[in-house]
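Render this sequence as a predicted structure.
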Amino acid sequence: MRILVTADLHYDIRRSRSSVETLAERVCRTDADALVLVGDTAGAEHQPLRDCLGLFADFTGRKFIVPGNHCLWCLPGENSIQRYEQIIPAIAANAGFTVLDHEPVIIDGVGLIGSVGWYDYSYRDEALGIPPAFYRAKVSPGAAARLGEYSGLIEEFREQLSGRHFDITVRWMDGLRMRMEMSDEEFLDYVLDRLHMQLEAFDSDERVRQVAAFVHHLPFRQLVPTGRPDKFTFAAAYLGSDKIGDTLRACPKVTHVFCGHSHWPGKCRIGKIDVVNIGSTYIHKNLEVLDL
């Protein structure tokens, strides 16, 4: 069985579109058995997602999608849980795609499973010395100092902040564009509880000889980019969580894991699991091939 895997198509962003269309043409010329889009296919607007999925209409294999954090950004009147549970699955179904988070499948003895994953700030670089409250607010000290609504946060921690901290001017846009009545840690547990139950079902299913998992956020800290400028070091807090990897490793049938999100390619082996970060950027889109 041949599975094609890509991620971070960001079809709502103009500079991404040409490379996405080229990739889609390439995919549609293959006779692969399945295609998986591992998160951030588009953003809050519905039509770019529809348009992007439509590019793969001529692909003859099974088509799957995993939502990314950008997919859960909201239009007025929406909330992120509604997008995750209802809106994205409906748009996907109309284009012939299945959301793996909600509907794991078995193809030729291989279980395919997915999850948006999430973050709990466990990947933050503590050596940077930024108080955790800034990560929860999704704003760096430098950005907070320029935005009036964070004056209280700056005053509370001013004695702990240095010039280096104020030079970091980053805002994680989930803080502005997502709406859900739970913390990031709670949402991570919410999606991992589902993933755990699905993996347990695969583990006890005699039809499943191995499992390939597709998770948007990084499941292992070995994939977190290192040695990068401070603004990227701050953003590492939002790349994923060790708890995702722990959930995957608890299922002995998991042999392959694919992720995206960081726009930074990487490969590693964790125990018996081969792990690949697709590494698509806003301009260049990568395609991985998994033969099982």
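Summary. The first strand starts at residue 2 and ends at 6. The chain has two domains: 2-124+179-291, 131-166.
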